[in-house]
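call fold target=Peptidyl-prolyl cis-trans isomerase
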Amino acid sequence: MGTLVVELYWSHAPITCKNFAELSRRGYYNGTKFHRIIKDFMVQGGDPTATGRCYIE
């Protein structure tokens, strides 16, 4: 595993960016496999809890 660097577009998706940044800061995605990476477009990864719930209120 290595380091993943992403660019977040806060002005376009502020809630999504906030959730992703905070979950990342907390280590939520540590060890998660990002199985689809399209350069300059998007990444997709699995849900480490397998619950589908990864939203911070």
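return ok
The chain has one domain: 9-57. Residues 9-57 form one domain.
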